[in-house]
Design a protein that fits this description.
alpha+beta; Pnp Oxidase, Chain A; 7-stranded antiparallel sheet; 24% helix; globular
Length: 160
């Protein structure tokens, strides 16, 4: 069953939050890679997350094998974190028009990392282009912010 994001969570996911993507292979060996932005589709039940080609080889192989994916979006200033779990419905080379999303994300991430003392010149070294666009059907939404309610499904009386 596809889950939809609220308007507030759409804004959160598409902002300069830290994006970590988790997958696994057929032997259940995990893989993690930094995402370089996301775009929520108009139905709010699908998100496109961008995976750098330079660092995403194993992630893409895992998605081809089984399609399972978890994506954590974490705001650096206060550790507010949500996790989306679902299935990759398509993987393709990111298009030229996607580059604007990735570039905007990098700028916002650099500002957020500067908040905790990381110079923007270092955050811009994070590999971002070329990348792959992974379209994910959202199946579950989890609260992962440290504290009470961490690990609970969103929508069961828990405010993310």
């Amino acid at each position: 069953m596809t889950r939809s994001l609220s308007a507030e969570l759409v804004d959160f996911v598409q902002s300069g939050v830290s994006v970590q993507i988790g997958t696994r292979d057929a032997s259940l060996v995990p893989e993690a890679v930094r995402g370089v932005g996301a775009r929520v589709e108009p139905d709010r039940g699908h998100v496109v997350v961008f995976v750098p080609a330079a660092t995403g080889t194993r992630t893409l192989a895992n998605l081809e094998d089984n399609g399972r994916i978890a994506i954590c979006f974490s705001r650096i200033a206060d550790n507010r974190t949500i996790q989306l779990k679902g299935r990759a419905r398509s993987v393709a080379a990111a298009r030229d028009e996607d580059r604007a999303v990735v570039d905007r994300y990098r700028g916002e991430l650099a500002q957020n990392l500067a908040f905790v003392g990381m110079p923007p010149r270092l955050s811009y070294r994070i590999s971002s282009w070329p990348c792959h666009a992974v379209r994910v059907e959202i199946e579950t939404i989890w609260v992962q912010t440290p504290g009470p309610g961490a690990g609970e499904a969103l929508g069961q009386g828990v405010d993310a």
